[in-house]
Amino acid sequence: MASQTEENYLKALYSLSVGKMEVNISELSAALNVSNPTVNSMVKNLKSKGLVKYEKYKPISLTEKGRKAAALIVRKHRLTEMFLVEKMGFGWEEVHEIAEQLEHVNSSALFERMDELMDHPLVDPHGSPIPDRQGNISESAYEPLSKFSSGRKVKLAALGHSSTEFLKFLNSRELSLGTEIEIKSIETYDGSMVLSYQNHASETFTKAVCESLLVERVG
Amino acid sequence: MASQTEENYLKALYSLSVGKMEVNISELSAALNVSNPTVNSMVKNLKSKGLVKYEKYKPISLTEKGRKAAALIVRKHRLTEMFLVEKMGFGWEEVHEIAEQLEHVNSSALFERMDELMDHPLVDPHGSPIPDRQGNISESAYEPLSKFSSGRKVKLAALGHSSTEFLKFLNSRELSLGTEIEIKSIETYDGSMVLSYQNHASETFTKAVCESLLVERVG
DNA sequence: CTAATATGTTAGAGTCTTCTAACAAATGTT
DNA sequence: AACATTTGTTAGAAGACTCTAACATATTAG
User: Fold this and answer.
1) Where does the HTH dtxR-type domain lie (chains A, B) (predicted)?
2) Among B94, B97, B106, whose Cβ lies nearest the Cβ of A101?
3) What is the pLDDT of residues B12-62, one digit of tens each?
4) Is residue A103 situated within a structural domain?
5) Pick from A44, A62, A80: which residue ends a domain?
6) Domains of chain A: total
């Protein structure tokens, strides 16, 4: 069983390797807020446990064993987030910090019960897919809103990231998952988009925001 | 904020000092499964934080600050146990291990939400009182069944301890909190009691068991 | 292609929690 | 009271995770 610290390294490696497959020492230390030497020695430790592939001065990657271990932690994290929102009435901006702690709890019974009580949800409150019990995860096919052009109608399906600030911002604009959005116009100068949805006839969002709004086509 | 380890020492001190007020180094090390020297140094550490009173070769006691800190951990533990039983469908024999981990989670929001969702329960699934937000706990006025005499009718209100084995034993006899019990007879030789309750006309329990069944008078 | 910069590594140390071995104090027994 | 036993303490060390300072290797820019 990996320690809580080791689990956090695996999880960070997992999210940093989305798409990329390989991760720097420095990226990891930035993500975990520890120094490079600390990461260096922990990576050696994880290597000795067969959880990462690593050679001096080369980038790090998860082994299959490490990838699965990480996915199972992500599963616990996302099931918890969904449970807190669905069954306990928390807002989607409140659950990350709590799930960050609960994800290390050692009790498959607890998480499987959450899973059952929610009828096996496929995604967390931010639209990120929940890995299954075997650690398999379905890659989401959603695209950033910024890729689409004027006139297009889409539905908000997930978020590129889910920092508390971003979630509070979306709350303030009354934008939530499942909302149907129409692109009214795009500012060519800075890529900002004017959108229409629900009772918001015209809201402007920066390009950065639109890159983090993952959507699917409608109609 | 106390570390998880420190919290476990406080909690152990708290339960060992029920009634007694003072605790030995050896009792603590037995309860926590660590060596005497380990306890000795941790107790010095807790003393330096103002959580315990302690002098060389003397027994240990919690300060008011320590007592409150411990009670708040017990509050989190018992709220969690009750939540797992009431809202997640676990059996009373399954929840201790999970609560043992969840009690260290740092999130008053989580535990206050549990409290609200259950409408501020007063006791945990084993009948032990839940301390309030200020760390105050109502001493239970229940007495062990073994104190009563033949013919007496009582109601099972709480348990003296709640080890998994004991709980499974009670499950096997279909005995749960709230059950009304009549003492049919008492064996003078070994103090075992013959009880009648619900659809169990005659069940014999050892004195040791009856000392852990806390009851209140009925009728 | 060298020099400057960025990135990674090693060495040595500190904190927290734990241990064992050896010693000291308190308690119980005849 | 004197001895034996139990209980508590000190000293020294180890493992996990972290740091800073100093050094080594890679990468980037002129």
Assistant:
1) 1-63
2) B106
3) 999 999 878 889 999 999 999 999 999 999 999 999 999 999 999 999 999
4) no
5) A62
6) 2
